[in-house]
Predict the structure.
Amino acid sequence: MGNIIQASCTCGLESEQIFQGIGFQYYETRIRLEPAYCDLCGIVSGKDMGKNFCKCPKCRKKMKFYYEGLEADDNEDSDFPSSEYLESKEHWHCPKCKDENLIFGSMGCWD
Ligand SMILES: [Zn+2]
Ligand SMILES: [Zn+2]
């Protein structure tokens, strides 16, 4: 069960639809997509957070996950925040205009 999200910014950046979270196939694929960005190319894309090196599809450099910039919860065992972390902030870093102007819109749910 997950959310379909899309990042957009006033500068015109628009990401592909990102199937965030885990679905029923997770137990086979072990793929969990979370939004990541590349500051060099100015793109936002869904990347498998199980891999510690997610290459940018354009420049092949490492992409940065949005959750990486968040403060960790003190009493949190998990090294990863729950899927609701995207609701903790309204505006996010935009890799294109480098402003905190990017928002994640919900396009629906998937399972
Ligand atoms: Zn790139
Ligand atoms: Zn922007």
In short: Strands lie at 2-8, 18-21, 33-38, 43-48, 64-65, 92-93, 100-110. Residues 38, 40-41, 56, 58-59, 61 surround zinc ion (ligand 1) (CB under 6 Å). The two ends are 4 Å apart (CA to CA).
